[in-house]
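Problem 3 from the worked examples.
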Amino acid sequence: MHNKGKFIAFEGIDGSGKSTQIRILAERLKIQGDTCYTTMEPTDSPIGSLIHQIMTGRIKTDNKVIAALFVADRLDHLLNDVDGIVSKVNEGITVLTDRYYFSSYAYQSVDMPMDWIIQANEQSSQILRPSVNIFIDTDPDIAMERIARNRFHRELFEKKARLIEVREKYLEAFEKQKDVERVMVVDGNRSEREIAEDIWGKLMLLPESAAYQ
């Protein structure tokens, strides 16, 4: 039994297939005997529910307010005493999250200075930095096709022009944070199975790969 679980954050533009890859990886880790917990941001907490209402256009507010709500939701995601990520990792559980603070850096910096957003999320990064951030790098055209196939409505952030900007902001954020963050970039323009095999193979090459064997 490992003293601490791993914390793996999946990142990517909408339609990149993060939730599918999280499910596949969690199943694979469980077969190996790992205890896994999958989660996502925004959460389904009261703060997360408010964010969902803003993202679907039911509530209007300023971009700084949205950024601050994400910060609050993330801190609660880490620290709440019912199913907080920190307590799970400390119990030796491997936590896989669909989005973490790089999503804030990428999506919110389209409208605001990225350095401000990174600073606003500093508490979260100090509390728990991912063992690895897995970025599923997907062409916005392919992402839009997947969104159109799989969803009945599109949230604010799912317009093609915005996805192009968000992808560029992700790459900018990874460059800014390259000295403090471990980022694994995976080609997301392939089949689910090919992407899953690539993620698994790259996880095996990480310094802590013993944790997955």
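Problem 4, a separate protein:
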Amino acid sequence: MIDVRRLHLLQVFDHHRTVAATAEALDVTPSAVSQQLAVLAKEAGVPLIERQGRRFLLTGAARVLLQRAPAIFAEMERATSDLTAYVEGNRGVVRVGSFSTGISDLVAPALARLRTSHPGWSFEVVQAEPEESTEMVRTGHLDVALTMSTMDLPPVGEPEFHAEPVMVELFDAILPYQHPLSTRTGLDLAEDLADEDWIMSAPGTAWYTCVTAATNQVGFQPRVVHTVDDFSAVFALIQAGLGIALMPRLAWTGLSTPHIVVRGVQDTARRHVVALTRAGSTAEPLLTAVREAARKVPVPSVGPFAAAG
């Protein structure tokens, strides 16, 4: 591989024509110039200098190489400028991973904002569920992971990682539009929902674990009649009047589905959303923008979530 510093020396030699003048221009010894030109020829794999009497002349290969020199030096200047901008917080390239609802409700709005406030930054979004996010950050496949406080998150104090809180996401009750509880403005987890038919994901999943931890805390185990993982399937089952669900708030934000209502619940489940990075890294400016998006996440309305179809 060609050293750009030696390429610069070759460019200076081409301008001054002699080893002595080149050495004087670069404030080095003539022997250092000769030595570095010889090393450059080895790096290039072809002779770059030929001697004619007391004169040293550039070979055709050297001329070919020097044709590329201005473009190479310009790219190096741009790279240096980019690094300076990065250090000053004005430029960066970040690969961010998130669970699906985090992408739609937090990451996407955050990146839309950053396109205006931080135009020098570039982001690549990768869907990554909590169970895989930590390893993807560890191996460098992600720079930042928007994840949740599940058993897959590194323990507090783990020296390899750094976690910043983003939001506490509450779970809300999703009910069929004609459900008797749909006229209520707020529900009690134990008193109102213990005897309902529940729709939930399979045991062992983050959603199931979070909800059952909350229900067990208030004294009951949900009667799960439908087991699904896809949120759109959950809404379809609720629309059909086949059960209720306690769902994370980001799952229904922005939804416009008829025949269902959303209600806040006392003693509800909750999960902590965090931004995970490698130790020594920073989640900024993404973290600030994501937190701003989190503050705009709506809460359940007093009336029906969507008009009956």
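Solution to problem 4. The first strand starts at residue 49 and ends at 52. Confidence is low (pLDDT under 50) at residues 302-309.
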